[in-house]
Amino acid sequence: MKVSSLARGLCSATAATAISFASATIAPAETITVTDIAGRTVEVEKNPSKVVIGEGRMIYSIGLLDQDNPFQRIVGWKDDMVKYDPDAYRKYRAAFPQATDIPSFGSPYADEWNLESVISLGTEVVLMNLGNLLKAQESGIIEKLEEAGVATVFVDFRQDPTQNTIPSVQLLGRIFDKREEADAFSDYYQSQMKLIYSRVNSIPIEERPIVFIERAAGYNPDKCCNTFGAANMGRLVDLAGGRNWGSFKTPGFSAKVSLEALFADDPEVIIGTGANWAEANPATAAVLFGYEADEAAVQERLSALASREGWGELQAVKNSRFHSIYHQFYNSPYHFVAMQSFAKWLHPELFEDVDPEATMVELHDKFLPISYSGVFWGSLDAK
């Protein structure tokens, strides 16, 4: 049978298209080699479509990069954001309903983690926290994932946030192919931090007040107290022009301290941390900061914390230098907002023109896929 030249042409074009399509589908994904925050050299797929995050609150950072939809590549997570920052979870879920469908695998450093499910999803990369590096190494989870062809990458917004936030954002920007977004936020972060650094350097040490940070103040109403050492929010206090009480007491990240020691030293300023933990712990007396908080409830909770037995005799309470702030700043790239609040509380005249509220609004308008609402810090009203 003779085939017309037109038919032959169509057949050739179809075959070429099929070959081209087949080549495209089997072409290997582009990989890049990165150094993660643990100092590990990792080969990872560039712009992965299937990512598992070892902590749900990593969405705070991913939202800076995948601004159109921070859940678009997330196929599994831990449900800590759902439990311990439900205001934020509901805010994100309202904007991105698919968040409801993301399976929770629990902690990747514990026996509860379902490795088989993670692999079966076709996961390309698992993001883990630097603070859990030792646990991950001891559990063997890194090696098991590597054997399955899944890369593990460590980031850090908690252990040493002032040093590791920009490297972590840049690392994620490279992996997610979001370099422009990472650069834009990095520049903004640096400008916000330097706004404080440039003035604090002029404050003599003796004019920097002693500050006690009560970590998760009132989370368990009958227990007190935990504080930060010279790390995380303790470090932010020092950088904001204070002297962190916990830095003198422990070389570690955090520590449990006695009320007797706290009352004996009677620090000049007290700052607690709080969040909406009422759903995880209905009995909590913490200040329920977050996207759904309101000023009246914040004052009520602050007043109750200041009224605990013996606390009313402390100079920080008497002098209305008793404050509280959103706990989740301790684990997000937005801690410069907390530092600006600290600076205003510690040196109100020097930082009179600094407006953390305006910074928070600008942060959401420029970089985040959700709008700003709620209350994230507060000071006990003078009586």
From TrEMBL:
First and last residue of the signal peptide: 1-24
Key words of the record: Signal
Keyword Cell wall biogenesis/degradation found: no
Ranges of residues in domain Fe/B12 periplasmic-binding: 50-354
Tagged with keyword Signal: yes
Matching Pfam families: Peripla_BP_2
Protein name per the record: ABC transporter substrate-binding protein
Organism: Parasedimentitalea marina
